[in-house]
Write a structure and sequence with these properties.
One of its GO terms (cellular component) is tRNA methyltransferase complex. It comes from Chloropicon roscoffensis. Pfam families: UPF0020. By secondary structure, this protein is an alpha/beta fold. The chain is about 30% helix and about 25% strand. It is built from eleven helices and 18 strands. Strands 1, 2, 3, 4, 5, 6, 7, 8, 9, 10 and 18 form an eleven-stranded mixed beta sheet that branches. A seven-stranded mixed beta sheet has the order 13-12-11-14-15-17-16, with helices on one face. Strand 7 (about 130-135), helix 5 (about 145-155) and strand 8 form a beta-alpha-beta unit. The longest helix is centred in the C-terminal third of the chain and has 18 residues, at about 305-325. The chain is elongated, with a radius of gyration of 25 Å. Bound molecules: S-adenosylmethionine.
């Protein structure tokens, strides 16, 4: 147990009124070491307790230190969110009832164990709170998370003297995390500034795979990136994350619903443009594109068949050779294993695009390949490569991509000032 945080009957409370307890969310076990290192280097936190079945870190640090960092808070990439810890109760052998057993039990816990007045002093009074509930395992299984949030909002659990009101849309978020291993209540203070999955309204390609595709294309400031089959726009979102300074990020799709969806998902992105167009007849000038990154139709979920794709891929390749800059142009294409003969014949017939690397990747259970193709002048095009691995990765593994993707974000940003 960390000095200064004591556990009483399973409830974690601060013993020093001058110091405040914070919690941070980590997305995966693989981020734990990086998270600890960042806490030490940026916030001077030497010890942090792993909580909530490894999903959280609980530590001591004044909120003022977080605030004083300003933009330097962006050095923290490994933590998803940081919040002010109102209470944390673990389910242990000595305290088997860490998780609340009923809504009344939970309301009592929030009313009696959370010091709303102290929190209002630290975070500013007169604000509107909203409750966000996350539930996993068997705890309060008979209730939906929205029902729990509503019941807390209506239940008057916030101390009236705190000067806060509860609303459906508040300017402060109270997070209530319920699981079989315990309960954690906190107020969100900072979160990752990047466009992330949380902002994507409609899911499409796995964002980690989309990140890997863009990373393989090695985007540089000022370059024009095009996705010929934009779907829901995940590739463009990841391109923006990896290289905010791209000249433009363009996406096209034949399907009106996809165009709409990609437009929604990329609405906040700088210099992004989505259009309805055919990948085989793109309304752009020859040699006007630096990078093409596309998740091609497989003939699996998105209609078509491997036979149809033979014609489609041939036309797409011809269009890519017209659109890409001859000197530095490069493309990264994803398709499934069944379409490999189509890709192989396109590569054989290509006038100037050559295969640089072909990497295997699993999408769910679907065996797929990522093809990096480039002209002779593109960076990396002539390197001697490890078979099946991109030159920037040490070894295979989407898990590694996931970690690298997180560590390349813009970093934490305060949501409460
Ligand atoms: C495999 S999906 C792409 C999924 C996308 N990466 C995502 O994240 O949602 C293929 C997309 O290609 C589009 N498509 C199929 N044929 C096309 C064509 N000739 N021109 C443009 N888009 C096409 C489909 O409408 C579909 O949205």
């Amino acid at each position: 147990m960390v000095d200064g945080i004591r556990s009483e009957g399973g409830a974690t409370t601060s013993s020093d009124p001058m110091e405040f307890d914070l919690y941070a969310t980590i997305a995966a076990k693989s981020m734990l070491r990086a998270a600890r290192e960042e806490l030490r280097a940026v916030l001077g936190v030497d010890e942090a307790i792993v909580a909530m079945g490894q999903g959280k870190l609980v530590f001591r640090c004044p909120i003022s230190s977080l605030r004083a960092l300003g933009d330097d808070l962006g050095q923290i990439k490994a933590l998803e969110r940081v919040g002010y810890l109102m209470t944390y109760r673990e389910t242990t052998e000595s305290s088997p009832h860490g998780s609340p057993e009923s809504l009344d039990d939970l309301a009592r816990l929030l009313a009696e164990e959370c010091d709303w007045r102290k929190a209002a002093k630290l975070l500013g009074g007169g604000r509107k709170l909203q409750f966000r509930v996350k539930r996993s395992g068997n705890v309060l299984r008979g209730h939906s998370t929205s029902e729990i949030a509503r019941s807390l909002a209506l239940g008057g659990v916030v101390d009236e003297r705190a000067g806060w009101s509860v609303s459906v849309r508040g300017d402060l978020t109270v997070t209530v995390e319920l699981s079989d291993v315990g309960v954690l209540v906190g107020v969100l203070i900072a979160k990752q500034a990047d466009f992330n999955e949380g902002n994507v309204e409609v899911k499409g390609l796995d964002p980690v795979v989309a990140w890997g595709l863009v990373r393989a294309a090695d985007p540089k400031e000022g370059e024009v990136l095009l996705d010929l089959c934009v779907g829901r726009g995940l590739v463009l979102a990841e391109a923006h994350r990896l290289c905010g300074g791209l000249g433009s990020v363009l996406g096209l799709d034949l399907d009106e619903a996809m165009v709409e969806s990609a437009s929604t998902n990329t609405a906040g992105l700088h210099r992004a443009q989505i259009m309805r167009a055919d990948a085989t007849r793109v309304p752009l000038r020859s040699g006007s594109v630096d990078l093409i990154v596309s998740d091609l139709p497989f003939g699996y979920k998105m209609g078509g068949s491997v036979e149809d794709n033979a014609g489609l891929y041939t036309k797409i390749f011809a269009e890519m050779e017209r659109l890409l800059r001859r000197d530095t142009g490069r493309a990264v294409l994803l398709t499934n294993h069944d379409n490999h003969p189509n890709m192989a014949s396109c590569l054989e017939r290509a006038a100037w695009l050559k295969l640089v690397t072909r990497r295997h990747v699993l999408l769910g259970r679907q065996k797929c390949f990522i093809y990096l193709v480039a002209g002779a002048g593109a960076s990396g095009a002539n390197e001697v490569l490890k078979p099946g691995v991109f030159e920037w990765e040490e070894r295979r593994g989407k898990e590694r991509w996931s970690k690298r993707r997180r560590l390349s974000r813009k970093g934490l940003k305060l949501v409460v000032v």
